[in-house]
Amino acid sequence: MYYRRTLTEAQINRELLGTVLSTPLWWIIIVSLLGIVIAGMFSAIGFMFNQGLGVTGLHQPVFWGFFITNFVFWVGISHAGVMISAILRLSQAEWRRPMVRAAETMTVFALMCSLLMPLIHAGRPWRIFYWVFPYDWARGIWPDVRSPLVWDPVAIITYLTSSMLFVYTALIPDLAIIRDRSTGWRRSFYGVLSLGWHGNPRQWKLQGLAGILLSALILPVFVSVHSIVSWDFGVSLVPSWHVTVFAPYFVIGAVHSGVSAVVTLMVIMRKLYKLENYIWEEHIDALARLLIVVATAWMFFFWLDLVFALWLREEQELVVWNLRLFTPPWSWLFLIFFVTSYVIPVPLWMFRRVRRSFTWMLWTSLLVNVGMFLERFIIIVPALMRKGPMVFDYSSYRPSIIEYTVVGGTIALVSFLLLMFSKFFPLIPLWEEKEGQLLIDEIQIGKIAVPALVKEH
Amino acid sequence: MGRFEHISQRYWSWVTLLAVLSALGVVGFWIRLSDGFDDRSNWGYTVATLSFLLSTFMAMPIISAGLRLAKAHWRRPITRVTENMAITGIVVMLLLIPAVAALPDINGRLTIWFEFPLGAPGVWDFMGYGTLALLGLVFLWTLALPDLAAARDHLPPSKRQSLIRTLAVGWTGNTRQWRVLHMGVLTLGGFYLLFYPLVQTLMVSEFHAGLLPGLKDAIAPATAVVTALQAGTGMTLIVMYLMRRFGGYENYFTIDQFWALAKPLLAFSLLWFYFWWSSFITFWYGRQPGETALLKLLVLDSYRIPLMLSFFLNFLGPLIALVWNPVRRSIWGPTLVATGIVIGAFINHVRLYVSAFSVDDPFQIPRVLDPIPAGQLPEAPDVLIVVGAISSCVLLFMLVSKIIPVVSIWEVAEGLRLTKVRRFLGRYARVIAKSH
Q: What residues of chain B lie within 8 A of the CB of A2, using their CB?
């Protein structure tokens, strides 16, 4: 039953600090392999910088391709952290405890990865500095602050900063525990990071307050980030992009994708770090229930997007949707996206047995993210590749090997960063687990003792 | 059960007053009917009222279904109030008749039915709204079965008791019946949750977007759902306050319930702005001729004042007030904000639907609104219809509350068994059983 695994504090410390205080062989092997993939990615990026954007599949009129798709995808994944952590913390959902830190950390690394994409996409990223510090004062060329392309980095950097604060604030009590169990340079390192934490009542009060305040304050940032990404598309006049529903559609899609990524992460973490005492069937069951709601809401927005795209029967709009729905290879990609992100996983999640199976949940959550990547790809590319007014040279878009390498490399990069993080910090918050243990109780109803939780008045 | 059994003189006075007001609504409707349906603008306020009722009273069962799915324990005393409001589906169905009759021909205008008329829009609209109303009533009835049985066994023989006996359909509370009830409630609640956005999509596309040339606002149905949740929560708070103040239910509608509902109310208020802004910014940046004309109608010119009022009552006011915990954690705070929200919601529905019904030619091509109609104030029959429709909803609620108790007795009793109070770290804390 729920919350019935009683663990001692010593056991929690020992089990959750295992990988921080020692280095297993598998960790070294995986990190090395990921390092090779990342080196391949940076080589591809270097080659592209040297040769120019011509080595990608981008050409007129499709100038947004895999890189921008990947940017939107990783911003989407980053929505897991706040959804799981802030919202579940505010709503006092007890089942959040083992997954908050991993979700928050994934947010941070996914955002870093997403920021990389527009830089690469610019072709000559050093020119970004001219954008931040305009150099040609005489010509009066300034960044257009009315453009969502300017709001984008501002929102993402704000989200990144607040997410890092979020992770760090919740880490402090655990850092003090590691400090007290370390020697040498590690002790100094964790001593500085733990800011003199001793766990007195005032420190706990401040820490709790900071957690609640950050949770509440980060929510508007969380919503604004993907909304602004959606307005990169929505405020343009490109057919099928100029849609009012894009902002909530993107946000809820991001939550769908992000929470699925958390499921993937939880299942892998459980296996690799032997966290069977902390991540149970009940946790992924709760996540799956959440995903059913989120996915269905997302489907409603998708349906609205489709219906109202056809609403005015505008020729250019119909051309794009004809490409997406009926013209191969886009129609095949559309079918795969639709089936993998909703048709297969959601009906499966209706079954309790699937929701409580780590294997099923791993594969269905991976399917969702395959589908969600394709969704972004299908939103972006067919809308640009149509033959519109004043477009005389047009053809289909096919990503090059360079783009595939970069996209694959970003997956490796986020995994690599998560593994590195887990080497220095526990992926499951020790203090949250201990607090959870304190709140366990039971109520006798007739002959049955029902698991119960303490809720403060 | 004691309060349910007793019917006071004051109750009958209110019922009489509401019946008179409802009758005045019928008079207003009759006056409008005598002018026919050729002048669509005559029916704008009727349609706005239809949408308002759909978005407040009929949104309330969602609160019950949602809180039930989320297993929120504090919901127990308040869910029945929201479920009882499903009875207002009858008024919504009645108002739908003139609303559909006032719609222009489907040929040549924008409609969600595209090239699939087959009775559209009337048949499909009635099927959609009717299914929702029916779902609401079955949801209410299913959840009320144990209390109906208790009332059947408790009340002395009378016509009222006889009706309750019929509705209780032989409930004895055996294990199988309870299992069926729990399964049925989850299924019906889930269906209501899924069906409500579809009906709102019908409402918005048929009576708003379909009449405004050039309007392509894909977010509008979702906005309607969010604003409905806000208004539904607001109306729940108002009813709770009234039941507490005048019905003697102080022990059931406590500060815990007001506090807990104030949080989603704040969230919905923020979402109100977010959805409105998402739509506005797209039009503002688009600057297409059709979009500019619609902005002038709905935002900048003809209906600027209703928008400003709604903006304050539905977003700014609630944000300023509910961001403070002492306000949220009070009886008066959430109630006051909720009253403003419900008024703001009505004004917003007037903005959306009266404006749409005042457009002369929804068929015009190119699809650019021209001329832009001026704002339309209500006439005497409109006021009578609005007052009558709202009164008849309240009247139905009051009547049904003497058949089905307004506080779910079995749920409150279940909650008491699942809760205990104990000392925890030097304080008193509530322990809540997690039956799953």
A: 434, 436
Determine the length of chain A: 457
- Quick one: residue A357, left, alpha or beta (phi over 0 = left, psi -120 to 50 = alpha)? beta
The whole-number pLDDT of residue A295 equals: 96
Candidates B285, B418, B430; nearest CB to A235: B285
Domains parsed from chain A with CATH numbers: 9-453 (1.20.1630.10)
Residues of B in contact with A223 (CB under 8 A): 274
Looking from the CA of B127 toward its CB, the CA atoms found within 13 Å total 7
Within an 8 Å CB–CB cutoff, is residue B171 touching chain A? Answer: no
CB B82 within 8 A of CB B236: yes
Which segments in chain B show pLDDT lower than 50? none
What digits encode the pLDDT tens for the residues B55-81? 999 999 999 999 988 888 889 999 999
Give the C-alpha separation, B138 to A408, whole Å: 52
Is B435 in the A-facing interface, judged by CB distances under 8 Å? yes
Residue with tokens 């032997």: A274
Cα–chain center distance at A209: 25
Question: Is A292 in CB contact (< 8 Å) with chain B?
Answer: no
Chain A: closest CA distance from residue B434 (Å): 5
| Peptide bond before residue A329 is cis, with ω within 30 degrees of 0 | yes
Check if the beta carbon of residue B279 is closer than 8 Å to that of residue B223: yes
Distance (Å) from the C-alpha of residue A291 to the closest C-alpha of chain B? 14
Contact B140, B83 (CB under 8 A): yes
Per residue in A229-263, pLDDT tens? 999 999 988 989 999 999 999 999 999 999 999 99
Whether the complex's predicted ipTM is more than 0.95 is answered with no
pLDDT for position A1: 43
Say how many C-beta atoms besides its own lie within 10 A of residue B105's C-beta: 8
Q: For residues A346-369, b (16+ Cβ closer than 10 Å) or e, as one string?
A: bebbeeeebbbbbebbbbbbbbbb
* The token pair that represents A227 in the structure block: 């909304």
Rounded (10°) CA dihedral A41, A42, A45, A46 = -140
CB contact under 8 A, A441 and B422: yes
**CA–CA gap between residue B410 and residue B144 (Å, rounded):** 9
Residues forming a β-bridge with B422: B429
φ/ψ of A145, rounded to 5, equals: -70, -10
Instruction: Please report the pLDDT score of residue A412 as a whole number.
Output: 97
State which residue of chain A sits closest to B417, comparing Cα positions.
Answer: A445
